[in-house]
Amino acid sequence: GSTIGIIGGGQLGRMLAMAAAKLGFRTVILEPQADCPAAQVANRQIVAPYDDTDALAELARSCNVITYEFENVPVEAALELAEKKPVYPPPIALEISQDRFREKAFLNDCDIATAPWYLVNDTRSLAAGLAAIGGPAILKTRRLGYDGKGQVRLKGDGSDDLAAALDAIGNTPAILEGFVAFEREVSVIAARDREGESQVYDIAENVHSNGILATSTVPAAITPATADMAREAAEKLMHALDYVGVMGLEFFVLADGSLLANEFAPRVHNSGHWTEAACAISQFEQHIRAIAGLPLGDPIRHSDCVMENLIGNDIARVPEILREPQAVLHLYGKAEARPGRKMGHVTKLKRKK
Ligand code: ATP
Ligand code: MG
Ligand code: MG
């Protein structure tokens, strides 16, 4: 059998390792934290920083193909690995998605519309951006933001303290984005194999709470035309990146049904967790199939569903969830339930309408 390397040992790495095992693969994870969710299911863990040269050499030696579960893998590490073994998704997808400036520019170059945005480095460019875009707007760090961290909202009516806003995001390079008065948020989970064939799951409607994904509901309350636009955007983006693997692409839906892309993740995505319960082939298996050179599975959905994240103390609801019919529970094996920490998720199935 063949061995799959996974950089990152969080819950996404854990679920990828489970899917890989189901298809008969061995997995080796590279993760500095010894007691991580993926360690409980992977065959082996290399406990080292993601950019450790010896660890990367060891990972390349022990695996036939390498993937990753988070978008902040150091690009240099991915490129180093790619000289020895195939790395999917391609490192260029990492490089673009880990910088919001490059990401927005790339989306726009693919003719995928986004909110208006402006590159910000200091109070002067922030003032210029606010003048260009108008308020309200959101200031976001270019790098390392997730779950809504590294973001500040601005009114744009002259009352904002621009220096304080830049302080609040650590005075790092940023972009200013127009605030989108969206009707709803949706995401598309798409896959592309090594031959360039693609498959797209049904679009999910996402609700965030305090910047963190709370629920994904399928089907989304959007028209077929809007759903087609989302699929087409994902396919265009994957083609432009010569992508291999699963990707998540997030959108804002406007009142007229048009879409603005927000960001993409070059990996399996939280808003695709429902696929493990409502589809024969989950996003995790789809990703493993894509990177391992296997044919993609049929992404058809057999049930309507709502996926709920279990965050922090939500874990206390597990006993009652276990008693609910048609509730598919998935826990990540994390010992400590800190506030804002993703502990698991539950997908509640309903008969398909
Ligand atoms: P993730 O955990 O999804 O990677 P993130 O920290 O990268 O999150 P975004 O996805 O950019 O951040 O933003 C988080 C949420 O904040 C969005 O899903 C949306 O609800 C809201 N948001 C972000 N940008 C905008 C915007 N321009 N207009 C309106 N709401 C926004
Ligand atoms: Mg993000
Ligand atoms: Mg997001």
Automatic annotation (TrEMBL):
The ATP-grasp domain, residue ranges: 104-292
Binding positions for ATP per the UniProt entry: 100, 140, 145-151, 177-180, 185, 208, 262-263
Pathway: Purine metabolism; IMP biosynthesis via de novo pathway; 5-amino-1-(5-phospho-D-ribosyl)imidazole-4-carboxylate from 5-amino-1-(5-phospho-D-ribosyl)imidazole (N5-CAIR route): step 1/2
GO molecular function terms noted in the UniProt entry: 5-(carboxyamino)imidazole ribonucleotide synthase activity; ATP binding; metal ion binding; phosphoribosylaminoimidazole carboxylase activity
Ligase keyword on record: yes
Documented EC number(s): 6.3.4.18
GO CC annotation: cytosol
Pfam families: ATP-grasp, PurK_C, RS_preATP-grasp-like
Reaction(s) the record says it catalyses: 5-amino-1-(5-phospho-beta-D-ribosyl)imidazole + hydrogencarbonate + ATP = 5-carboxyamino-1-(5-phospho-D-ribosyl)imidazole + ADP + phosphate + 2 H(+)
GO process annotations (BP): 'de novo' IMP biosynthetic process
PROSITE patterns reported in the protein's UniProt record: ATP_GRASP (PS50975)
UniProt KW keywords: ATP-binding, Ligase, Nucleotide-binding, Purine biosynthesis
Top-tier EC class: ligase
Xref: PANTHER family: PHOSPHORIBOSYLAMINOIMIDAZOLE CARBOXYLASE, PURINE BIOSYNTHESIS PROTEIN 6/7, PUR6/7
Assigned protein family: Belongs to the PurK/PurT family.
Record's function text: Catalyzes the ATP-dependent conversion of 5-aminoimidazole ribonucleotide (AIR) and HCO(3)- to N5-carboxyaminoimidazole ribonucleotide (N5-CAIR). Catalyzes the ATP-dependent conversion of 5-aminoimidazole ribonucleotide (AIR) and HCO(3)(-) to N5-carboxyaminoimidazole ribonucleotide (N5-CAIR).
Cross-referenced HAMAP family: PurK (MF_01928)
Subunit structure: Homodimer.
Protein name: N5-carboxyaminoimidazole ribonucleotide synthase
Species in which this protein is naturally found: Phyllobacterium leguminum
